Amino acid sequence: xxxxxxxxxxxxxxxxxxxxxxxxxxxxxESLFAMIQNQIPGSICLDLFAGSGALGIEALSMGAKECxxxxxSSEALAILKNNTRNINNAYVISSDYKKYLKxxxxxxxxIFLDPPYHHNLLNKALKFIEEYNLLNKEGxxxxxxxxxxxxxxxxxxxxKKYGPKTIxxxxx
Length: 172
Known about the structure:
The chain is about 25% helix and about 30% strand. It is α/β, with parallel strands linked by helices.
């Protein structure tokens, strides 16, 4: 895995083999970031269920102001710390997603939601994001999933399928 564009283009990322994760393929990541490229510069991002941090790192590479990487797996956190070394404004947080969403005092411009599949966490996370009003005006939530269709009051602005995987982009 590598960063595909921007300031950190070509940076090698570890973590393609973290148990319980499946990294976003480069062609999917490239397409996703092409869809949101105009919203990234200067944004505050949250990479929830961060895994290797590939999505948040890509956003930082493309000019995001800062990114918060949240995961509770000790293996993922070790890889995240390594992957974000020498990357400015990358904040790695060891926390359960619910606990973090309840206590954060931040509002985000972009939230990446790519939870472990088949654990029914996507809609739970969306509910917390809405309940605690964690998106800035016109903020985006990017959902990547296979089976758990996102249910939210946010406005669906883009949707794309990649084999069994779907990306939906919602806006406040």
